[in-house]
Each structure stands twice: as C-alpha cells, then as structure tokens.
C-alpha cells in the first residue's frame, strides 16, 4: 500500500523533489513519484487527485515552480493533506513559486514549505510525523532521527582563533 504521493510539474523538478523521496525511503515509508502538470496535463491532475484517497494515499507532496498552481489545484480536488514545495525558478529564484503556493485563499489549505531542497526534505519529514501519529515504530524512527541531528550539533567544534 502506498502512503505518500510525490508529484511534480516537470521532471526538471526532480533534482529538488528527490530529497523528499530520499527521506521517505530512509524511513521506510511507501511512496510513489509522478510528473503531473497543472497546466499541461490538467485532466491527469484531476484524475490523480480524485483517485488518491481511494488508492490509500495519506498525503500528497507536490512540488512546482513558477506560477505553481499544482499543489493548490490538487488540494481543491482531494481532502488529503497537500504539502507544497516551491521549486526554484529560472528568473525569480523560486520566490514566485513560494508565493503561488503559500497564498491560498481561505478554505483550501496547502501546507507550504521552504523553497528548494530543505522544503522537499521537510515536507517528507512532516508526512512522516503525520504517519507516525498512530504508528509507534515510525514514531521511534523519527525520535532517533532527531536525536542523531542533536548529537551531530553537540559534536560540532569551532576553530581556535590564533
Ligand atoms: C512548472 O514549470 C514545473 O513545476 C517546473 O518547475 C517549471 C518548468 O518546467 P519545465 O519547462 O522544466 O518542464 O510547471
């Protein structure tokens, strides 16, 4: 059973979105990846969103760049949580993507993450946290991940000033 769908507007988004896939893979969460373009394949977008819940998905991570309407349109067509990842764009460095995704009018939410790699990874970590609610094994894995990060920072040394 697939728990999380990772969708993106183009295969050019993969460089960023692969970081969401990496996190889910590391946590052993079952996911699928698809290219679904809001403006180039709108019928596919509708079909994907309309069938997601029945196929057992618990959340959709959607990344897009520019006039990034993919996450918002998915959210309009499914009750599942949609986690939006702004992909850096060629001319506006992803600020356009961020504003397009985050400024959803009241009533149809999209949980919006940071531009780029950090946003993709954090969207996946957020999905893991959602799934861990009711899954003790996943909750333990998430705690261990946090602990590892903590130990990494505690072990950081700074250079001596000469
Ligand atoms: C958006 O347009 C995609 O999400 C991508 O970020 C951007 C550019 O797409 P390509 O021209 O690289 O296919 O729909």
UniProtKB/TrEMBL annotation:
Substrate binds at residues 10, 13, 40. It catalyses: 5-carboxyamino-1-(5-phospho-D-ribosyl)imidazole + H(+) = 5-amino-1-(5-phospho-D-ribosyl)imidazole-4-carboxylate. Its EC number is 5.4.99.18. Pathway: Purine metabolism; IMP biosynthesis via de novo pathway; 5-amino-1-(5-phospho-D-ribosyl)imidazole-4-carboxylate from 5-amino-1-(5-phospho-D-ribosyl)imidazole (N5-CAIR route): step 2/2. It comes from the Bacteria. Pfam families: AIRC (PF00731). InterPro entries: PurE_ClassI, PurE_dom, PurE_prokaryotes. Residues 2-153 form the PurE domain. The keyword Isomerase applies. Keywords: Isomerase, Lyase, Purine biosynthesis. Gene3D superfamilies: 3.40.50.1970. One of its GO terms (molecular function) is 5-(carboxyamino)imidazole ribonucleotide mutase activity. HAMAP family: PurE_classI. Catalyzes the conversion of N5-carboxyaminoimidazole ribonucleotide (N5-CAIR) to 4-carboxy-5-aminoimidazole ribonucleotide (CAIR). Belongs to the AIR carboxylase family. Class I subfamily. This is N5-carboxyaminoimidazole ribonucleotide mutase. It comes from Crenobacter oryzisoli. The gene is purE.
